[in-house]
Amino acid sequence: DIHPGYIHFVNAAAFQLSGLDIVSLRYPLMLVAFVQACLVYALVRRRNVALAALASVAGTAIGVIQFVDPTPNWYCLPLATALACWLTWVPRGDPARLVGAGVLLGVLTLFRQLSGVWAAMGLLTFVLLERSSGDRDSTPWLARILLLIMLAAIVWYLAVSPETEPGGVLLM
User: Fold this and answer.
1) What is the rounded distance in angstroms from the CA atom of residue 104 to the CA atom of residue 108?
2) DSSP labels for 72-115?
3) pTM to 2 decimal places
């Protein structure tokens, strides 16, 4: 998997702090899994505390089992969760909202470009829908064109990728 390299900084720091052992690469993963669990809990807590605890444990249980290989995408998941929390907690009118979302998206992309592209497509769609929710009189041509371009990119990716499986198509 091609990635920009932030994972190498994390791995080097893990080796520096925990020694040159392959298990050292799992410690940062466990830390970000804990941070992600806390973020999920905080995000769902307003609805129901028991549901928040269940969501927090479920997200960690599904992810931690797959920590056999410390790949960059495991760091993208907590960053995507942090992005969702940021967009939920920072008010719509705040100028720092989109700047913070861009910083989180940039860091996510520097761990793994493909995950960054997927997250950017989701963020762009969310922002366009949010901005156009009160605008019923105008025709959102630019938003529709961008959504069609993103849909075409996903279809192209699925068509040319040799690793495409039916379950992956369903998820996408």
Assistant:
1) 6
2) THHHHHHHHHHHHHHHHHS-TT-THHHHHHHHHHHHHHHH-HHH
3) 0.81
Q: Which two tokens stand for residue 60?
A: 């960690």
Amino acid at 44: V
Are the C-beta atoms of residues 26 and 65 closer than 8 Å to each other?
no
> Is the distance from CB of 11 to CB of 54 less than 8 angstroms?
no
Structure tokens at 34: 């804990």
> Residue 160: helix, strand or coil by DSSP?
helix
Question: Nearest to residue 62, comparing CAs of 70, 74, 51?
Answer: 74
Query: What six digits make up the tokens of 24?
Result: 């050292």
| Nearest to 36, CA basis, from 82, 88, 104, 72 | 82
pLDDT in tens, 9-21: 999 999 999 999 9
User: Tokens 């719509």 — which residue?
Assistant: 92
Question: What kind and span of H or E run contains 140?
Answer: none
